[in-house]
Predict the structure.
Amino acid sequence: MNQAFEYLACLPRRASVALFIIAMSVTISGCVVYKVDIQQGNEITQDMLNEVELGMTKREITQVLGYPLVTDPFHADRWDYFYSYKSGKSGETEKNGLTLLFEGDTLVEIKQQG
């Protein structure tokens, strides 16, 4: 009969230890930091670049690439497209840039960075 009472007396301690272990495992698993991927600017794919040709108009360029990220009021004939991607997992950053130069409304030069 004493053994039964000893077993019942240990139950609250066992339950509290089990509850503590569960609480700690939930707390520790919640400490994992999730970092999101960060994309900024105009993403320009190779397919989009393949469609761009010298002699195209500004309107045709915006249909293919969209509007430029940066427009300089002092250089209306220069359009700059920039894109950067930072991976949340590895932290590596990829940067690309594209500069289009116009004479009037006609594309005359393409400069690619990155």
